[in-house]
Design goal:
CATH superfamily of the largest domain: UbiA prenyltransferase
Helix content: over 70%
CATH class of the largest domain: Mainly Alpha
CATH architecture of the largest domain: Orthogonal Bundle
Largest sheet: none
Shape: globular
Order of helices and strands: HHHHHHHHHHHHHH
Strand content: under 5%
CATH topology of the largest domain: Tetracycline Repressor, domain 2
Mean pLDDT: 86
Number of helices: 14
Distance between the termini: 42 Å
Radius of gyration: 19 Å
Low-confidence stretches: 223-230
Number of strands: 0
Structural class: mainly alpha
């Protein structure tokens, strides 16, 4: 179920920050419960993906050590666990709200299609990964909505997450292409269509789009959010952290070839992890009740 990759689901908690619900107990509970639901549903998809890819994973220098590919975990046991985890996740999502259930179900359906077909379609495979991140972020806002609380979903927030997600997705594909080299076609035929030059240009576009959309979101957010301070420059003080984080990640991708597992990079690279912590502190300070 790859618990180390559940860090991706932390995007569901972004709604607490940007909806200014950090100190609201019921919202914190709903966000935490939603986080658990997405961990279960994504874990079930990881199991399914590893079942389908167990023969290909044996070619990959790192993925061949996965439990199913290495033979440590029987396929029947893995499949039963995936079904149970998915059922529990979707049941919990429905308990929160119908709309959150729709997000979780759409994510599960899309990732099942990805595991069977879409991961072999050029460009679509990377874009599906990015859409998965975006669904998480949107779901994190939707799950906070109740009859008493209407949490807005800002377009620039969605656009920023989409660009950032595409950046991570194409960095991942680039790292896979560089790491496997001549074995890329055997591991996943679609990787042979990804030239390093193409991905470098796409990564540059996505990094630029992520930074610009975050700046526009930060500049307009304070006026749009309920209870804003009226000082839009305060949110703009968080922009340098975002820029440093993106530049640091690109350094790790290009100079250290560490972009294949973004969740591992986030948890192991000190400067990047420190930047994320400082960004969270800065955003928390901006959103403190005035």
């Amino acid at each position: 179920m790859r618990p180390h990759q559940w860090t991706k689901n932390l995007l569901l908690l972004a709604g607490l920050f940007f909806a200014r619900e950090l100190f609201h107990g019921p919202s914190i509970f709903r966000a935490a419960f939603g986080f658990v639901c997405f961990c279960l549903v994504s874990g079930s998809i990881y199991i399914l993906n590893d079942l389908i890819d167990r023969d290909r994973d044996k070619i990959h220098p790192r993925k061949q050590k996965r439990p199913i590919a290495s033979g440590q975990l029987p396929a029947r046991t893995a499949l039963i666990a995936a079904v149970i985890a998915a059922a529990a996740a979707l049941g919990g999502a429905y308990y929160i709200s119908v709309h959150f259930f729709m997000c979780a179900f759409a994510y599960a359906l899309m990732m099942i299609a990805y595991s069977f077909i879409l991961k072999n379609v050029f460009l679509i495979d990377a874009m599906i990964i990015a859409i998965g991140f975006t669904i998480r972020a949107v779901a994190g806002v939707i799950l906070l909505r109740t009859p008493e609380l209407d949490v807005p979903l800002t377009s620039w927030f969605v656009i920023c997450v989409m660009f950032l997600s595409m950046l991570l997705a194409f960095c991942k594909r680039r790292s896979e292409r560089v790491t496997l080299e001549v074995d890329a076609h055997d591991f996943r035929p679609v990787l042979a269509l990804y030239s390093v030059q193409l991905m470098d240009r796409v990564i540059s576009i996505c990094a630029t789009g992520a930074i610009l959309s975050y700046v526009l979101y930060a500049a307009g957010m304070d006026h749009e959010a309920p209870g804003g301070t009226g000082d839009p420059w305060m949110m703009l003080t968080t922009v340098p952290f975002v820029m440093f984080g993106i530049f640091r990640y690109l350094h790790l991708v290009y100079n250290r070839q560490e972009g294949e597992a973004p969740e591992h990079v986030l948890l192991t690279d000190g400067p990047l992890l420190g930047c994320v912590v400082l960004w969270l502190m800065a955003v928390g300070f901006v959103f403190l009740p005035k």
